Input
Amino acid sequence: MATVIQIKRSSGTSAPSTLKLGEIAYTYGAGSQGNNGDRLFIGEGGTGGDGNANNVTVIGGQYFTDQLDHVQGTLTASSAILVDSNKAIDELLIGNATATGGTIKFNEGTDNGAHFIALKAPNNVGSSVTFTLPDSDGSSGQFLKTDGSGALSFGNAGSTITIADDSSSTATVDLSASQLGFVGGTGIDTSVDDGNDTVTISGSDASTSAKGIASFSSDNFAVSSGAVTIKNGGVNNDELAGSIANAKLANSSITVSDGSSTTDVALGGTITFSGTNNEVTVGESSGTITVSLPDDVTIGNDLVVTGDLTVNGDTTTVSTTNSLVKDQLIELGNGRSGSASGDAGLVIERGDDSNAFIGYDESADVFTVGTDSFTGASTGNLTISVGELVANIDGSNSTVTNLPNSALSNSSITIGDESSNTFDINLGDELSIIGGEGVDTTITGNLLTIAGEDATTSNKGIASFASADFAVSSGEVTVKAGGITNTQLAGSIANAKLSNSSITVTDGATTTDIALGGTVTFAAGEGIDVGESSGTITFSGEDASTSNKGVASFHSDNFAVSSGAVTIKDGGVVTAELANDAVTTAKIANSAVTNAKLASSSITIGDESSNTFDISLGDEFSIIGGEGIDTTIVGNLLTIAGEDATTSNKGIASFSSDNFTVSSGAVTVTTIDGGTF
Output
């Protein structure tokens, strides 16, 4: 029958009032933090006079196992914290109060942790933020700072400040070694309020004897954005002490200058304006002086025009030794419209010789240089005799004609052959390319053709090779195997024409050379027969006999043959094949048959768990009993017996039929019921 063991149990959520020492009980009412449902109890702590255990203690139950039933390392609601194999957990939430931020406390190592250091979240957080710690420690004296996105790093606390004045002069103050003072200058007062951590800088009232701050009467002054000016009409006659003489003025005269000579004219004096013939005219009317130019102006000295100069006329003549133009671009033909017409450029006057031209030939649509009888007044398409231009020319799209070699940085090309022989040929010289033996050269227009001549019996040249006679691979020509037939041979080939005209016959010690056409004789030795038929030589072994060496086969009952190696087969020599008394002890030397001579020289010992070890014949094998097992050896007899089981020793035992049921070696306990509580 089935064995049922029942402990004390209750469908409620209260702990049992009493239990015997070591007795267990279970409550299977719905468990919570506030009751004792779904819990396993045990009686412990010794017994009292009534035989009951002193304590009823919770030792487990579904209430606790439910809290452990989740993936290790993953934070799970209403469950215990289980770290993974690396002692890690994915996250940890601190704080569950409705109005108070979570706090992590680190207790001190003394006073039983009476004091602590805590990290606390604010009671109200507008939005979630994650602070990422640095990946390494900072330096001494550094502090943690954020990048504004939650990434923390170590930074240096500033110990100095730099102050600057209105002139951009700066000074550095070491706050750790000195103090920063605020001292008022003339017209400035300073005060420090330590209680409010403020520095007040104010201006002193100005007086007749001290500089300071002041306000300005609107009758006399105009003030705008701190700028004080004397108001128009702000100083009246009453405020003037009499009339102002020239001597009272900082500037009591004006200076009249022509750029080289100057004259000071006192206030109240007269300045006379006069003109010059053909240059400037001056007129005065009702206090107005008019300075103008005459119709024809002649300037005898330098003229500087700082604005734009526009000249309208037919001819502009410049007669100077040296003309300087600051403009980087000079535009010719400004104001022209429609399609381009007429040549444009620069004309150089050359006296009795033809004038020179450098510019754009509109009719030819090219830039050109040349000479002819044109002048600067010429128009339309000029007659230009093209001249030479010597210049360094850079550019890949230029077309240059009639450029001399002397104007080129490289005026020749170098010709080389396969032997590294070279020669230079100047541009413009004739280079002849002449074919050698087997090569023809032809020129048609701008095309040079280099072709090979056909090879003949009298001329070297190019040729193709018959596939029946030759093999050609990557330009390499070889005589094809079998490519030369008897019909292509002129007569027979004498031995003297062959690189190898003989064969060498050797027995390993003695050698003999036999010329082609000679005779090689094959003679039979012991156990060997030689035969010849239609050019075929046959070597065959003679059967072995008791009187003749020869070839033999080996009976599979007695011998094993592998790759020509013959061995006596295991069991190949049977009793019938041994002569009576043939194998005697005297024929076997002591220790002559070693373990190495045996096919199996050891035995394998194994246990029930398939663990094994080998022990060689001749070695000692010990059988030692474990707990509950005794081993004894008497003579050749090994006895393995079980020890009787006791309260202190594991061993073999019999089972009382009052308490146990034994069937086919299976022991079961009869029903034990702890009852309910």
Observations:
- The mean pLDDT is 82.
- Residues 62-68 form the longest helix (7 residues).
- The CA atoms of residues 360 and 653 lie 131 Å apart.
- The longest strand covers residues 39-47.
